[in-house]
Amino acid sequence: MLRKHRLKTNLEILVASTKLGLTSFGGPVAHLAYFKDEYIDRRKWLDDKTYADIIALCQFLPGPASSQVGISIGMMRGGILGGIISWLGFTLPSIIALSLFAMLYQTFSLEDAGFIHSLKIVAAAVVLHALLGLGKKLTPDKMRLGIAIAAASIMLMYPSAWMQLVIILCAGLLGLQLFKNKAESNVKPFSVTISKKTGILSLSFLVVLLIALPIITKFANNPLVTLFDIFFRVGSLVFGGGHVVLPMIEREVVPQGLLSPDEFLAGYGMAQAVPGPLFTFSSYLGTMMEGIAGAVVASIGIFLPSFLLVVAALPFLNELRKRATFQGILMGVNASVVGILVAAFYDPVIKSSIFDASDFALGMILFALLNVWKVPAWLIVILGVAGGYVIHFLGM
To answer: 258-265: long-range contacts at Cβ-Cβ below 8 A with a sequence spacing of 24 or more?
Structure first.
């Protein structure tokens, strides 16, 4: 009877999450609205208060916030297995779509196709839109804006993955000193069932992997191990959501010659056209570098830290969220994320996508549609590709 109940529960999670994975266009904010409609309003799995607390937890963690919310709901509904099933349902449609696109890109030499350049312009418009949104939210005062400007300047002068890590760590320490008095005091409690011991083990496993993987990669000399190391590290350190994946991964793969700037941005543009989390951009990159095996390794690598962090944070959520020091650190880190994204907006986004006045005009039109008229991202992709062909037809 218990086994049948678990099977039914897991099947419900799979059906609900797959539905969301097929229909959740529009980025993380839209994903959270879709989740509320499906999990809270329709299925009554959680109440509004619990859902708000889960969102608050995931905003405090590095990684894809909307995916972590889905994983958390799956875990609360069906344990660890429920979290895995919830993740699979929500991400697999996007993983499959982007992996297929990568194979088509390679098979038919799509790098010379006109729509590929249009996808790069779409990526520029989407990143600018995300950048302004993040800036308003994460740099609301002069001090945090200053941290963002400093982070952008340093990244432009010394572009490297290690410099990103140094910037994030320094910004966290600075935030600890500057913003602890700005922390929110009215924090609602959160009920959890995961033990603190399990949380500590999960966090320890994450730390061990972060330390061990670069060492293993150095001696193994295996491309799949290298791929897992890259994406696991990115998934562990990305603050600010899916769009910050762009600069973090770009610094890891493009300068090393694993992928060209054109290939990188084409996939990023295509990722705007599919539902689900933007972190599945990793599936496209993995396929481009190492085929289907690469897609599997990259996808698991970038999302595994989300599982480990959710399990690690849930038992300690109440204590951490009440601490002004913890909130101050995150304020500094989030401000630095804005600066890192500013640097990435210049290189590689602008440098690889905007070549003339026509490109600039199309990009600004797409940005206006996103920012002012609130056109969904998937429709922006269609309009961007159509606009590119119109410009080509008119000989502009």
So the answer is: 258/289, 259/285, 259/288, 259/289, 260/111, 261/348, 261/351, 261/352, 262/111, 262/116, 262/120, 262/352, 263/105, 263/111, 263/288, 264/348, 264/352, 265/119, 265/120, 265/123, 265/348, 265/349, 265/352, 265/353
**Token representation of residue 375:** 């056109």
For the chain, give the longest Cα–Cα distance. Answer: 69
pTM of the model: 0.74
Query: Residues 344, 349, 350, 352: is their CA dihedral positive or negative?
Result: positive
185 alpha-carbon distance from chain centroid: 28
pLDDT digits (tens, 9 = 90+) for 284-302: 999 999 999 999 999 999 9
Please name the amino acid found at residue 1: M
- CA dist 54 and 272 (Å) reads 26
Q: Which two tokens stand for residue 285?
A: 């990159």
- Are 177 and 280 within 8 A, CB to CB? no
Residues 264, 122 contacting (CB under 8 angstroms): no
